[in-house]
C-alpha cells in the first residue's frame, strides 16, 4: 500500500513517481559509478551525459528550432524578471508587459529598474480573473520586447490566444506553471523561461529557451553571471550549475516522452481539469474565481460559501489525504494544482470528497 497522498501544491509540486524512484537509486549510485548524482563533478563524464541528454530530450519534446539555445540557470523564474531587462532593455527604451497577476506585477517592477515599461493590458480591474483579449492590448510605438505569463497560479487563469507584438519586438513568455503541459510553438517567441518547481523538477533552477540572434545584443555592461551569452557559450556551466535540478528535469523530460509527449499531456491535463470544472459548474455551493474563457488547466481555483467553511474544508481535506489545497494567501479560497504528474484519480477522489462535504454543509451555509 502506498504511503503517498494526493499533492495539490502549487509548487514545489508533484513529480512523477517513476522519476522519484529513479532519483532514489541515483542519489546512492548513478550509472554504476559508485557515486551518487549529488556528489558528481559538474565537469565529469557522468554529468556530461546528464546535461546533454536533458538538453536533447528537451529539444525533442518541445520541437525546439535549431536556432534556439537551451539554458539551465540558477535562481528560478524570479531571477529572469531582472535578467531579461538587464540584457535587453536600455534606459531610454520601452518594453511592453501584459499584467495578469502577482508574478507579472513583480516582473514589471524589476523591469522598471532598467528602462521604460508600458503596461499594454491588465486584468487587475477584475482581480486578475481573466486574460485580456487581443483587442484589449495597447502596444507602445516601438517596444524592444513584449512580456506575458502564460499561466497564473494564484488566480487560475491561462492564455488561449497568444499575442503578436508589433514591429521587430520579440515576445517573451514566463511559462513557469504550464511549461510542457501542451504543445508550444517556440518560433513565436524570442525567449521562453520557466521555473522548474511546478512542471519540470525541483526549485532553484530555471529553463530558458532563447533565440540565438538575441545573444548578440548588448545594451549595458553587466556582471558575467547575468549575461545570457556567457551561459550559452559555456553550455550552462560557466560556474557550478544546479546539477541535481538539471538531472531531475532530464528525467521528467524522458517521462513525458515515454508517456506520449506534449499532445498526450494536453489530453491528460484537459481531462483532469474537466473533472473538477464539471463539478464546480454544476454546483451552487462551490464557485470558481476565473472567467470561463480564461480558466487554467493547471490551477483550479474555487471558493466555498464562507471563509469559515473554506477553513473547515481545507482542514478536513488534509485529514483525508488531500494536501496543498489552501489558496494563495493574497486571495484565499482553495486551489487544486494539477500539473503534468498529478494523476486523474486524484481529481476523481477530490470531487467525491467535495460532494460529500457539500452534502453535509450546504443546508447550513449562508449562500
Indicate the proportion of strand residues. Answer: 15-25%
**Element order: H for helix, E for strand:** EHHEHEHEEEEEEEHHHEEHEEH
CATH class of the largest domain: Alpha Beta
Helix content percent band: 25-40%
What does this structure look like?
The chain is of the alpha/beta class. 35% of the residues lie in helices and 17% in strands. The strands form four sheets. The protein has a seven-stranded mixed β-sheet with strand order 2-10-9-8-5-3-4, with helices on both faces. The mean pLDDT is 96.
Give descriptors for this structure.
367 residues; Aspartate Aminotransferase, domain 2; Aspartate Aminotransferase, domain 1; 2 domains; three-stranded antiparallel sheet
Record the SSE blueprint.
Elements: E1 6-7, H1 17-28, H2 45-62, E2 68-74, H3 76-88, E3 94-99, H4 102-111, E4 116-122, E5 145-149, E6 151-152, E7 157-158, E8 170-174, E9 191-195, E10 205-211, H5 228-233, H6 243-258, H7 261-282, E11 287-288, E12 299-303, H8 307-319, E13 322-323, E14 334-337, H9 344-361
Parallel strand pairs: 1-13, 3-4, 3-5, 5-8, 8-9
Antiparallel strand pairs: 2-10, 6-7, 9-10, 11-12, 12-14
Amino acid at each position: 500500500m502506498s504511503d503517498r497522498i494526493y499533492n495539490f501544491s502549487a509548487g514545489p509540486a508533484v513529480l512523477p513517481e517513476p522519476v522519484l524512484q529513479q532519483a532514489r537509486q541515483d542519489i546512492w549510485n548513478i550509472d554504476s559509478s559508485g557515486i551518487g548524482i549529488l556528489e558528481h563533478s559538474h565537469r565529469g563524464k557522468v554529468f556530461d551525459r546528464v546535461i546533454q541528454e536533458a538538453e536533447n530530450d528537451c529539444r525533442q519534446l518541445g520541437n525546439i528550432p535549431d536556432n534556439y539555445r537551451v539554458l539551465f540557470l540558477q535562481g528560478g523564474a524570479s531571477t529572469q524578471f531582472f535578467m531579461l531587462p538587464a540584457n535587453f532593455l536600455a534606459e531610454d527604451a520601452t518594453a511592453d508587459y501584459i499584467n495578469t497577476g502577482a508574478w507579472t506585477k513583480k516582473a514589471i517592477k524589476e523591469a522598471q529598474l532598467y528602462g521604460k515599461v508600458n503596461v499594454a493590458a491588465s486584468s487587475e480591474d477584475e482581480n486578475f480573473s481573466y486574460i485580456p483579449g487581443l483587442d484589449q492590448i495597447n502596444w507602445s510605438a516601438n517596444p524592444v520586447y513584449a512580456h506575458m505569463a502564460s499561466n497564473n497560479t494564484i488566480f487560475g487563469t491561462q492564455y488561449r490566444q497568444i499575442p503578436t507584438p508589433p514591429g521587430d519586438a520579440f515576445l517573451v513568455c514566463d511559462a513557469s506553471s504550464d511549461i510542457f503541459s501542451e504543445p508550444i510553438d517556440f518560433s513565436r517567441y524570442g525567449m521562453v523561461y520557466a521555473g522548474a518547481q511546478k512542471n519540470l523538477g525541483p526549485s532553484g533552477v530555471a529553463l530558458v529557451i532563447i533565440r540565438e540572434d538575441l545573444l548578440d545584443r548588448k545594451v549595458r555592461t553587466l556582471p558575467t553571471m547575468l549575461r545570457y551569452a556567457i551561459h550559452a557559450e559555456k553550455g550552462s556551466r560557466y560556474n557550478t550549475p544546479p546539477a541535481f535540478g538539471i538531472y531531475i528535469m532530464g528525467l521528467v523530460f524522458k517521462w513525458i516522452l515515454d508517456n506520449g509527449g506534449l499532445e498526450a499531456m494536453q489530453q491528460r491535463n484537459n481531462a483532469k481539469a474537466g473533472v473538477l470544472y464539471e463539478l464546480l459548474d454544476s454546483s451552487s455551493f462551490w464557485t470558481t474565481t476565473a472567467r470561463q474563457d480564461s480558466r487554467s488547466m493547471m490551477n483550479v481555483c474555487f471558493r466555498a460559501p464562507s471563509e469559515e467553511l473554506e477553513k473547515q474544508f481545507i482542514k478536513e481535506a488534509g485529514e483525508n489525504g488531500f494536501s496543498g489545497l489552501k489558496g494563495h494567501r493574497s486571495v484565499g479560497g482553495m486551489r487544486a494544482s494539477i500539473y503534468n504528474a498529478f494523476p486523474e484519480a486524484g481529481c476523481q477522489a477530490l470531487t467525491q470528497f467535495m460532494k460529500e462535504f457539500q452534502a453535509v454543509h450546504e443546508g447550513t451555509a449562508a449562500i
